[in-house]
Amino acid sequence: MKWMKFSNEKTDFLVKNILKGFFFLAILILIFYLLRRGTTEEDRLLWFGSIYNNPYLVLAVFVGSEIIFGIIPPEIFMLWSMETGYLGPYFLSIGTLSLISYAAGFLNFTIGKFLKGKVGWLNGENKYLKKYQKMFEQYGSYLVIVASVTPIPFSAVALLAGAGGLDKTIYLLYSLFRILRYFVYAYILWMIEM
């Protein structure tokens, strides 16, 4: 009976965070369409400068964001990819972005394993990580799945999973949900665009 209660707690946690993710996706789509309707290509170039039309720079920003705890929501890069087509056909570019995110998570997982016990901020001395460390202590490897598909910072959880001693195979398997998330969100954006 205790297992069932914990299982329901995990399910509630996942559903709550998935709903948050869709809420933020809806807000982002609304902002995207308001900007798109009220601006021209010239306006966007003025606001974003040469970044918008420089795929190498955009990818560098994306990689940096994915390594540094997902500072920029990946949906922004999905929308950029849809708008510009610089990375090729839309779903191919989504595959590229999802693999970059998956690899960035594994890099953070590896860094976490290496730094385990060596740095104070990884052992509960950082306010930002402390919140997710408590979640990791409560949900364990399940948090990797939740972070893969929701707005919870995937890279931060990957770092903590490595530092927390999560088995590499389990991490790599559970974090595959990250790729699924990219394609689900990309499909939603694509359907709305049509």
From TrEMBL:
One Pfam assignment: VTT_dom
Coiled-coil segments: none
Ranges that cross the membrane: 13-35, 56-80, 86-109, 139-163, 169-190
Hydrolase among keywords: no
Annotated InterPro entries: DedA_domain, VTT_dom
Keyword vocabulary terms for this entry: Membrane, Transmembrane, Transmembrane helix
Name by which UniProt lists this protein: VTT domain-containing protein
Source organism: Aquiflexum gelatinilyticum
